[in-house]
Design a protein that fits this description.
The structure holds 2 protein chains of 2 kinds. By secondary structure, chain A is of the alpha+beta class. Chain A folds into 2 domains: 183 residues, no CATH class; 181 residues, no CATH class. Helices cover 56% and strands 19% of the residues of chain A. In chain A, the strands form 3 sheets. Chain A has a 6-stranded mixed barrel with strand order 5-6-11-8-10-9. The longest helix of chain A is centred in the C-terminal third of the chain and has 44 residues. In chain B, helix 5 runs parallel beside helix 6. The mean pLDDT of chain B is 91. Chain B has a single domain, classed as Rossmann fold (3-Layer(aba) Sandwich), CATH 3.40.50. Chain B is α/β, with parallel strands linked by helices. Classes of the chains: A alpha+beta, B alpha/beta. At the A-B interface, helix 1, helix 10, helix 11 and helix 13 of A face helix 2 and helix 3 of B.
Amino acid sequence: MDFLQTLKIALRALRTNKMRSFLTMLGIIIGIAAVIAMMAVGSGARHVISQQISSIGSNIILVLPGSTTSGGLRTGTGGAQTLTSDDVKAIMAECPSVETAAPSTRSSALLVYGNMNWSTVVMGTTPELFTIREWGVVAGRSMEQQDVDSAAKVCLLGQTVAENLFGSSDPVGKIIRIKKIPFTVVGLLDRKGQSPQGQDQDDAVFVPLRTAQRNLVRTQTPNMVGAVMVKARNEELLGKAEAEIKSLLDQRHRITNGKEPDYSTRNLSEILAVAEQSSRAMSLLLGAVASISLIVGGIGIMNIMLVSVTERTREIGIRMAIGARRNDILLQFLTEAVLLTMIGGITGIILGAVGATVVSSLLSWPTLISVESVSIAFIFSAAVGIFFGFYPARKAASLNPIDALRYE
Amino acid sequence: MSDVIALTDIRRVFIMGDQQFAALKGVTFSVSPGEFVAIMGASGSGKSTCMNILGCLDLPTSGRYLLDGVDVGGLPGDKLAEIRNRRLGFVFQGFNLLARTAAVENVELPLIYAGVPARERRTRALAALEMVGLAGKENNHPSQLSGGQQQRVAIARALVNEPAVILADEPTGNLDSSTSEEIMGLFTTLNRQGITIIMVTHEPDVAAYAGRRITFRDGLIIGDTN
């Protein structure tokens, strides 16, 4: 018997019991919809995380000044200003695994342009920061080493700052006041978006490090820096670079055994790896729920197929009497089961896609429905049909034609 | 001409638990092409068991069965299915048509399993329906047909693959007497066209249509008259 006929017979059988077929499919529909939605939301989450990773820059170690104890109170990380520009130079010169490093100071200030003002973060830094963070300008120029060396009163604006001070007009070449000191805007930075912690990275203004140290930040000694961002040569060298920095700073700051270091290091990739891991755990959980639903749906199909075989015993007998081989009968019932799960699978794929789109529009969270996830879902639903349809189909095929014909 | 059916010392023993029951105790007879044979006997006489063996639905415990010159004994299941499909046509007491399936599609069924292409299938099915006097009813479902018409559809289904023998098991058992006469008239017509028919019945007036009557009792043939 050709396949087209088998398919026709199976479709007819499903149409005969429309409601029952639909209810039988429901388990598969829900399972597949969950798989599709789960994979879409999961890959959306991974996409967001990888975007955030690239927004920070890759292979980055953060070196922060340590805490100090004053009057019995420990002030916590950053409480003391213990890192200097010289430390940064030493890190760049003496740590072979470090590609480059950028110091920064951080302070808040009121920015004024004309009758507009905006309170924001002022970062004093060096040109290396923009290399490390892979952060370019959309207008004007970026920061140059000469700006730092000469402590020039120039600044780069983040997108949010530019919007609030200048609206849509071009800020490059204009003069703004930071803490009442006039600065020339030399460049407008590209949009960075949110940091993994949810901060607006574009709400900042960047000035040369030495300018900040002299004019904007109150420091104990003139070359103090607030934090150092270090880029390792590659991902494998990240841990080695961190160790090199630690041993170098221990030496420079005379931290001997047992003494608490006056700085700390943080590996940003580790933080992101944790975030990614949790999103993967979430995907696994949803996947487990979906597989359970598919198994339950499959058992439902097996159940209904067994009922169907019993109901149609006489039909099986007739078919056998007029020349159906056992394989014809087996294939007929198997096709019916696979058809059930595949129609359920396709419905589930559509439903899952709709669900994912709704989630993404409600949470403004991107969802990606990949060809892979759709084909995996499709193959999986067919596999469920074959697996759970085989036993009932074999039962039908192994009926004795005489008994089947006599069955009332 | 060689025999269409040749049974030699056919025995069939059913084993139920540790009990043995011999339904056929050595049956020998042959049927020539174009014969119309009625197999008679009370219930339990072994006529149904004999019919199942003739129909290749059951295999004898011992003995030899030649159908159209082919020794059926020891053939695998798929081969038996093919023989049922190509060389035998079944007509049952309860019609045994597929419900919710048009008459023409019921008739096409054996051709589907024979692998006949769709267009030829339809032509041959329609021709078979015309032969049994049901032209114009091809799209009716069994529930829309009378008992006699349903049995005609079943006969058309039995005829459609041009079998060597038509096996009819109590074909008039579910029909009233006037419809029975119609159906028997149809069988007679078909037989005159050269089709071999073997029919099981326990009604003497139905058996009277057949040219030859074989009577069973307790698993043995006790009478074979023309």
